[in-house]
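Pipeline run #58 for the internal structure catalog. This entry was flagged by the ingest filter as a single-chain record with no existing model, so it goes straight to prediction. Upstream metadata was stripped on purpose; only the residue string is passed forward. Reviewer on rotation: M.T. Logging verbosity set to normal.
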Amino acid sequence: MTFVGLRIVSDFINGIVFLPNVVANNPTEHKAINKSLSMATLIFDHNQEEVNLPDHSPIAEVCEEAGVPFACTEGVCGTCVIEVKEGSENLSPPTKEEGDFLGEGTRHERLACQCRIQKGRVRVCF
């Protein structure tokens, strides 16, 4: 099996997560990959939308689709600041860029461009 530019999208049809850039020689292999993914849930407070993502996924794309504004995507401008209402322990540790911009020790504000959802459920607002 060859992976080409793996990009995970959180679309579900009949309980299957689709990996559009995965090239597999055999559809059975493709289904096996999809079923082996453990899923986390990102919840947007403003509309209660829940988005399922594979564990350890970046959240930038789904945050942008939900309306979070983005500019640099490098963690230096602060445009994509989100407030973590619950589940901060389920996000990746803050990056150096977040520490520089938001201050050390903050866990309730994060830069969406820098976060990954590790597991479980995370509720955010912006």
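catalog note: Residues 1-34 have pLDDT under 50 and may be disordered.
catalog note: The first strand starts at residue 2 and ends at 3.
status: ready for reviewer M.T.
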